[in-house]
Design brief:
- This protein is mostly beta strands.
- The protein has a domain at about 30-130 and about 140-230.
- The protein has 4 helices and 8 strands.
- It has helices at about 10, 45-55, 185-190, 245-250; strands at about 20-40, 45, 60-75, 80-100, 105-120, 150-155, 160-170, 205-230.
- Strands 1, 6, 7 and 8 form a 4-stranded antiparallel beta sheet that branches.
- The protein is extended and about 75 Å long.
């Protein structure tokens, strides 16, 4: 049999403990950063949250927590190599309400916001298939995996910033004109423990959010890079022991210097009040 090995890599590394090697990785083709302001977005509440809101005298937003984000990639028609990236954020909002006599109650709701960007993702048309340990020669093929070589979008973000809170008194049934609520994943729904309501009577609550994000689009690529021998760590593993002396264990923990550093800047305003001065207990 003819020898088909590519020996060009070895020729530059023999006797030197290193050289050029080919790696399979994800190459960044395009990227962007953005700061999005979503103004007056409806918050979906449970029946309990609706009741607290209806009986409250003042409401403020305590925090916003990103639960999950859907990222979709679709090719832009008549513009080869460019793709539209759709990002849909599912955000948990926690509120604090004054319900009279100096008492306060906390309740949570869900916000769904969406954004679109267009990035260059290349024009690769090669089909890509991968082996798996579960597959065998006689295994039934999975025809749903077409093995396309579409690019992959990656979104990095931080917790949203609350920019404003608005409560609108409404005695009529406000009908939702969008369908994003019905696309909420089951895991996001279960995070609230109660069913979230869409079309309800009574006051509605809206928030304005600011979100920082970095979005990039990548494709599989084979790159030739310089490398050295396999690196073996010099540090030896330390066995975990059940030390009866807690003070001795405490002395081995590094001092958290970063936790004591001040930023020297004014803190970011993250609560939007509709009046009130009550606080949640605990």
């Amino acid at each position: 049999m003819q020898e088909n090995k590519n020996t060009s890599f070895c020729q530059s590394s023999c006797g030197h403990g290193g050289g050029a090697i080919c790696i399979d990785t994800m190459r960044v083709l395009d990227g962007c950063r953005d700061r999005d302001c979503f103004e007056d977005v409806r918050v979906y509440l449970s029946a309990c949250g609706e009741q607290i809101l209806a009986n409250s005298t003042n409401v403020r937003t305590r925090s916003a927590k990103l639960l999950w984000a859907f990222v979709g990639v679709n090719e832009v028609p008549f513009n080869n190599g460019f793709y539209q990236i759709t990002v849909r954020y599912y955000i948990e909002i926690e509120f604090e309400a004054c319900v009279g006599s100096g008492r306060s109650q906390c309740f949570k709701g869900l916000v769904v916001v969406e954004k679109d960007v267009i990035l260059y993702g290349g024009e690769g048309r090669a089909y890509s298939f991968k082996s798996s340990p579960e597959s065998s020669y006689c295994a039934m093929p999975d025809y749903n995996n077409c093995g396309n070589n579409d690019p992959v979008a990656i979104v990095e973000t931080v917790e949203p910033i609350i920019l404003g809170t608005k409560v609108v008194d409404c005695n009529c049934a406000c009908v939702c004109t969008c369908n994003e609520y019905y696309d909420i994943p089951e895991g996001v729904r279960n995070a609230f423990g109660e069913e979230l309501l869409v079309n309800t009577d009574g006051p509605k609550i809206y928030v304005s959010l600011g979100i920082f994000s970095v979005i990039r689009i990548v494709r599989p690529a084979q790159l030739l890079v310089q490398a050295t021998d396999y690196c073996v760590p010099d540090k030896e593993c330390t066995a975990a022991t059940n030390n009866d002396n807690p003070c001795a264990l405490f002395k081995n923990i590094a001092f958290p210097i970063n936790q004591f550093k001040g930023t020297g800047e004014a803190p970011t305003q993250s609560h939007a009040d509709r009046g009130g001065g009550c606080g949640c207990k605990g």
